[in-house]
Design goal:
Elements lengths: L8 H11 L8 H11 L4 E4 L9 E3 L14 E3 L7 H10 L4 E6 L5 H6 L6 E5 L17 E6 L8
Parallel strand pairs: 1-2, 3-4
Antiparallel strand pairs: 4-6, 5-6
Bound molecules: S-adenosylmethionine.
The site of S-adenosylmethionine has 22 residues, from strand 1 and strand 2.
């Protein structure tokens, strides 16, 4: 496991939280606020229990390989190295895609697809989220990233 931010318990918790499970649910209040704003139509990384939209893809569908069309996407991806692929897919999506991801501002994917990019808005979350299915708050900061399609409907 890759150390993420510090020594001791924080580092261990971060590694466990990030890698051991991939199905941490989006906090309902946060999802509802975003859904009121964007009206999502597709959750491309989900399972039968935790999908946030009527239309969704599961691991066996592999949402990364699916055509997202012009859907309005909410994406809380499985954490780990694969995040980069989800960020790239949202960046290239021909519609609005809103991601909930760890605020890892030192990563390649943050700089390649998010930081100072046109059509991308970042909302850093104050405090730490308590994800669905988790006993404690996350040991890392989170952010909501909004990717707007080329026609620029939001900004
Ligand atoms: C962090 S959870 C998010 C769950 C839910 N969409 C939410 O926002 O609360 C990520 C979900 O993606 C699913 N998943 C993992 N790999 C996937 C893939 N390649 N394609 C689609 N879903 C995948 C996991 O099973 C898990 O349910």
């Amino acid at each position: 496991m890759r150390p993420v931010c510090a020594i001791g318990d924080t580092m261990i918790n971060d590694a466990i939280f990030s890698s051991a499970r991939t199905d941490w649910g989006t906090p309902k209040k946060l999802f509802d606020e975003l859904d009121n704003e964007f009206h999502f139509t597709l959750d491309p990384c989900a399972n039968e229990q935790n999908h946030k939209c009527a239309k969704y893809f599961t691991e066996s569908d592999n949402g990364l390989l699916q055509d997202w069309g012009h859907e309005t996407v909410f994406c809380n991806p499985p954490y780990g190295r694969q995040i980069e692929h989800w960020v790239a897919k949202c960046y290239e999506h021909a519609g609005i895609a809103v991601m909930l991801i760890p605020a890892r501002t030192d990563t390649k994917w943050f700089h390649d697809y998010i930081y100072k990019k046109d059509r991308v808005e970042v909302r850093f979350i104050r405090g730490r989220l308590k994800f669905g299915g988790a006993k404690n708050s996350a040991p890392f900061p989170s952010m909501v990233v909004i990717f707007v399609d080329a026609s620029g409907k939001v900004f």
